[in-house]
Specification:
The chain is about 70% helix and about 5% strand. The chain is mainly alpha-helical. The longest helix has 30 residues.
Length: about 220
Amino acid sequence: MLTTRLWMGTVLIALAIGMLVFDQRLAPWYPFLFVFQLGLTLAACWEIIALLGPNRRPQIVSCLVGVAAMVVANWAVQGGSRAEAWGGLLGCFTALYLAVFVWEMAWFVSPDRSTERMALTWFIVGYLGLLPFFFAQLRWLYPSDTGGHARSTTALALAIFVPKCCDIGAYFTGRLIGKHQMTPVLSPKKTWEGAAGGLVFAALTAIGIDRFGPAPVIGNCLGCE
């Protein structure tokens, strides 16, 4: 388990650093982030479909096409105001929501699993298509004429490394001094000591990135529009 965590964490950190460093030179389209997010969302989509099993299949084509369309839409709406960008993204999500219903009508055979199949499809498209918007939008959060590229890199670094370092801190703290189970049924190996260690490590990571990153991001962003 530790070996797997180490090699997987190393690979992800290397990819994340590449995304943070090289994409700054390719603003405002950030192709490395685009490929990174598209690949991860499609892989995650396929994994969720496999975990659901053959008896709880969503609309597989709608799921894959839907999450890919949401990633593409996230880049396609850039260039306007923040309100226009989010309006375009919500419009794309609404269109996909209706498309799932139309697909079910077109291939309808019996009412035994129609509602369940649509609900699972909507969940996957929302979970893996809509929610990652908030991560990718950090790249366009700050205006480029005020050092936005550096600030967005710091914002992305915070979003990537703070949760990951929390996980690392919780894992090692739990292994060293963990004694009191936090979720005995759901995850028996998690402890309250590990949770505390993870939060401390995450806080220190956030402070370090904010202080030593390309540009501080703590504070308001009144001029971002």
